[in-house]
Each structure stands twice: as C-alpha cells, then as structure tokens.
Amino acid sequence: MDKSWIALGRMADGRMSKLSNDGVKLFLQFAIGVIDQNGNLLCPCIKCVNVYRQNLQNVEIHLLQYGIMQTYTIWHQHREPRVSNEAYRDDEMRVDGDEIVGGIEALVEDRIRGESTDTTQGEEVRTFDQLLTDAKRELFPNCTNYTLLKFVIEVLNMKVTNHWTNKSIDMMLEFLSRLLPKENLVPKSTYEAKKILRDLGLSYELIHACINDCVLFWKENATLDKCPTCKTSRYKISHGRGKKIPHKVLRYFPLTPRLKRLYMSRKRAEDMIWYKDKRVDDEILRHPADSDEWKEFDAQHPEFSLEPRNVRLGFAVDGFNPFGNMKNSYRLWPVILIPYNLPPWLVMKDPFCLMSLLILGESQPGIDIDVYMRPLVDELNDLWTNGALTYDASTNETFRMHAALFKIGYTNHRCYLPEDHPERRKSRAYNGKIEKRKRSLELPVEKIQHQLDNVAGVIYGKQPSNRKRPRQAPNWTKDTKAERTGEIRGRIINILCKLEKIFPPAFFDVIIHLAVHLPRKATLGGPVQYRWIYPIERFLGALKKYVTNRARPKGSIVEAYIVKECITCCSIYVDGIETVHNRPERNENRGERQQGLTVFKETARPIGLITRDAEMSQEIRDIAHWFVLYSSVEIEKYLEYVFH
Asked: Which of 194, 431, 458, 575 has its CA 20 to 30 A from that of 100?
C-alpha cells in the first residue's frame, strides 16, 4: 500500500494536492471496518492523535486541514497488523543507533497524547494549539532547518548544559535577532523563550509552613492565619502594608506528572520495563531487581508485579549550603526520588533523579521532616491505592500506573530486650509473633581485661623498625552471585574471629562490625551503587550551581530546575547537538569488543601515568598472570577442577 502521501501533510499545499486527497480516501476505506456503534473511529490527525473519536466526515476534514501524524505509517489502531515489535519500534521511533530522530513533531505528538488522559478535549486543543503552531513556524522566511520551537529548545539546552546566565542568553538572542533577516521570530529575551516552552514544562507548588515546623498550611489548614498547634502567625509582621510574606515556604514538585513523563517518550517507555524484558536473570546481583527484597515484594503483592510498568522508587534526603559558605547557617534539604525500573546505565544519572520537595531550614529537619513529607506521602498513597491513568508511547496504549517506595527497614529489635520484658509477649502490635530470641552477647569487663592482657608485641607509631606488611595479592572481584553472599559472610566472620586474637576490643567498633552485615544487605537490596550517597551528592552540586541570585537562592534553584526538566525531556527529540542523553560518558569503558579471551575483549581507558619499556618484577608478573586466569570465564571449569 502506497503511503507516500503522508509526508505531504507537512505543508498546506501538500494537503490540498490530489495525491493527498486520494491517500485520505484510501485511509478511510481501509479504516471503515473499525467504526464503533456510534459511527465514530479514532482520528489520526495531528490534533486528535488517535486519542479522540470522530465520524468519517470529520476525520476526512481533519486529515485535509491538519494533516496525518507523520509517525503513523503502520495503521495499527485501524486494524493493520504489525509485522513484529521490532519493526513497529523502528518505524515509530526511526531509531538511528542510539539517537532518536523523531524530531520536534514527535515531541508534540507524544506530549499531546501523554497529557490527554487528564484534560478534556476542549482544554487539550486550547493548550496545544500554540505549541503546534510554534512547531511549524519557520524561524525566518525560507528557513528549512529550524522552526521556532526547535530553535528555542536548542538555545535553552545550551544554557542548561553550559550553565549560561540569563544575561548571556539575552545578549546572544539580541545579536541573532540583528543578524538574521528582519522577519525572524527570534525571542527577545530568556523570559520570552521560556514562555514558548511553558506548555512543555512541569509545575511546582508553594506550600506555607509554620515557623516552628508544626504543620503545613495545606488542605484543611490552607485558610488559617495562625498555626493550630503553637498559635504562631503564618505571616511575617508587615503592619498591614504590602503583600503578606509567609515565614516558611515548602516547594513541592508533584510526582505523578513526572512519572507519567517517563512514559511519554517512546525510548524512555521501553527503558522503564528493561528490568522485565531485557535483564538477564542468572542469580548475579547487577540490579535491584536481582535482590531478595524485590522478589519478596513481588511475592507479597502479585497484583503490583503483574504490571511491569508500575514504578518502584528509591528515596534520599540530604542537605547542602547553597552559598558554599559553611559559616552561614542557611540550608536547603531536597527530597529526591529515583525510579529503579531503569537500566543500570541510567538509573542513578542526574536526569532521572526526581526532586520532590525542597525544604528550608537552618539545621537538619529531624523528626519534623514528617510534617514536610505529608504532600509526598499523600501522593504516594494515592499512587499505590488508585494509581494514575498514563499513556505509554512505546505501545500506544493507556494503562493505570501504580508506584511503591522501595526501602529496606531493619526491625525486630525486641530480641535485644531482657528475656522477661513484657514487650516480648506482645504479638499483635509487631509482626504477629512472640519474640523468643536472645539478645546479642555482652562482654563483661573482666573478659575484656583478660583479652587486653593477652595482647603483646604491638608497636605503635611510624618508627623505622615498623616495616610494612608484605604486599598481598589484590582482591579482584567480579559480579557477586546471590548464592555466594552467605559464603562471603562466613568468611568475614572467620576473619574477624582471627583478628580478635590480635587486636584489643577497642578496635572492633561499629564500622568493623558492619562488615558482618554487608553481604546480607547486598542480598536484600542489590548492588550498593543503587543505594549509596555519591550520585545524590553530585545532584546537590548541580543544584548549587543554579544559584544565580544570592538574595533568592530557593527561587533560583527551583526555576532553573524546572527549565532543566523541560529541556531534558525535549532534548531526546533533538539530534545533531550534544545533550544530556548523548554526551560522552566520563568513563568511556564501553568501547568495541575485541577478539580473544573474555578478559581482553572490553576496551578500557588506562588510569595513571603510562610508562613504556618499564621493568616488571616477577611478583607483579605473577599477580597479572593470576588476574588473567581468575577473570577468564573460559577456564572456570579447569580452575574448579584444580581447586576441588
């Protein structure tokens, strides 16, 4: 079937051509078999985007007036079969390597379809009419490379990527406005550029808080002027002059639209179910989905796990000084959520760390953080219970998305109580069981002194006679299998027992004892890189760079973060420039695979000074030889035979 007429829908002259008219009639004849009882069918024009139903006459008018969706070349919504999932993906997304070349039109289509689940048809048309217009308007007469929308996206992408100030963007826009023909549509300022993208961005809410952290003036307290707990005024004293200024303001970034946006892009929607479709389940801990806690959650909540698009979230809170001056007591405390559905190379990256709350306080919120967490907790409860209607761009269907907070808690502390404590016998208030386990061993003072007396021959300080211990073979590690964590824990306990014969009890503080629990924690929660603080610290460093107005640090961070969110989403659809999605990795270790043994296949960037023709001792040669043998999958069976 000839579908070349679809490309003519880009221009008004093309839509009025005979080839386009014949193509529309051909489509209507093909789709007549899917008309519903009311005589309507899904309209594939760029306004209705297969979301709204129209009668045959209106569908014909829409296709001639607005044009058909440029990416709708396989009419699967109108009974045309898909050849295969891969063929459909390639046609819809037009993937070229790792770059998505769907363009700005695909962005507008995805945005309209992704948002249509929460708004009426009239609201949808009014909201995106201007967006569609900007996506088609030439930047200047006879400009074939850039529309107004694409130009604004690329300019703001450069601003976000290179941390340009508003003034530098204003100067550049003014220069381009003078450089290009007089009829150009270049925005006059950064403010005007942001206004063009306002329908693509996400919003945030300002919620007033009590100065003593008692309550939020939200929902049932929204109309109060005084705190219902401490009776303190909600506002600063202004003596009746000017606008009322609250003592504290919480910035809240609604979670639901941000999770829905992950499914708005065809590429990201596929990444969100990577753990289900493409993860290799070979009992090796590479992803949180390999952990016991994830599997236990699936067993306890089978309804949730049946839908792989349901989102599992990590949670992190940390504070920072936006001015970089530790003498200043001003602190901001972001609450960050991380979608664990994503593959390992995306999950902990900056673009996917979702800031949910921005709390102001001179010190750590402590237990008062529960007050500020209420909007997020209420939304998480709603996502768990009711879910949110979400459009999946990869399958062109709508589903109800639920979310759960993935967090490990260590309970059952009753075993540390005395054996006759009444709390041990209470079952309903805890896990439904009576606690019969004994508490951990407590060393008496006499035994500690006896161990100290047995310690001898220890020389402290950096004296010349204190020679370093001989160099040991390095502890090269590979991906840890879940079944080996128990073995590792046993080895750690044996090592600690041997150390007790050498070192005094003071050596065995909580950090040393922590090693006993690390294997079990890895089994429960998966690899440590999905739970440590380093990505969060980098994220806070990025937020600190957003402070351009030291008098309004919170406003600077929030406004810059909103622009960054928008550009991060839009830049997926822009090709030919560097974005957060295609920039080179800091550690480019995923090069071309070479031939030979597995240990030599991966190309890697060398670390440290490269020396040539250096002499290598026999000890270093033996270590290198041992590493090659230990890391080569091809001889694992031989090594097992030798050792056992």
From this structure: 194
Given 215, 232, 252, the domain boundary residue is 252
Same domain flag for 403 and 391: yes
Tokens at 238, concatenated: 């202004």
254 Rama sector, left if φ>0, alpha if ψ -120 to 50, beta otherwise: beta
| N- to C-terminal Cα separation, the chain | 65
Distance CA 637, CA 642 (A): 9
One-letter amino acid of 435: E
Cα–Cα nearest to 262, from 161, 412, 154, 392: 392
Is 6's pLDDT higher than 60? yes
Count of structural domains within the chain = 5
Specify whether 163 is located in the same domain as 299: no
Q: Let me know if residue 429 belongs to a domain.
A: no
Residue 612 has pLDDT above 70, yes or no: no
| pTM to 2 decimal places | 0.66
With contact defined as beta carbons under 8 Å apart, do 406 and 288 qualify?
Answer: yes
Query: For position 588, what pLDDT does the model report?
Result: 54
CA-based radius of gyration for the chain: 31
Same-domain status, 209 and 195 = no
| Whether residue 176 is found in the same domain as residue 32 | no
In angstroms, rounded to a whole number, what is the distance separating the alpha carbons of residues 362 and 322?
12
Give the DSSP per-residue string, 572-597: GG--SS--TTTSPPSS----PPPSSS
Does the pLDDT of residue 256 top 70, yes or no?
Answer: yes
Q: How many other CB atoms are there within 10 angstroms of residue 410's CB atom? A: 9
Residues spanned by the domain of 15: 1-81
In this structure, of 80-94, 299-313, 538-552, the range with the lowest mean pLDDT score is 80-94
Q: What type of residue sits at position 320?
A: F
Is residue 416 in some structural domain? no
421 falls within a domain: no
- Both 192 and 217 in one domain: the answer is no
User: How far apart (Å, rounded) are the C-alpha atoms in residues 567 and 569?
Assistant: 5
Residue 313 has pLDDT above 90, yes or no: yes
**Helix pair 148-162, 166-179: axis angle to 10 deg:** 140
- Same structural domain, 515 and 561: no
User: 92 pLDDT exceeds 80?
Assistant: no
Q: Do 153 and 238 share a domain, yes or no? A: no
Given 560, 583, 606, the domain boundary residue is 583
Average pLDDT over residues 248-276: 90
Residue 428 inside a domain? The answer is no
Question: How far apart are the C-alpha atoms of 21 and 28, rounded to whole Å?
Answer: 11
Residue identified by tokens 């690329």 is 154
Closest CA to 213 of 317, 365, 356: 365
User: What is the spatial distance between Cα 63 and Cα 42, in angstroms, rounded to a whole number?
Assistant: 12
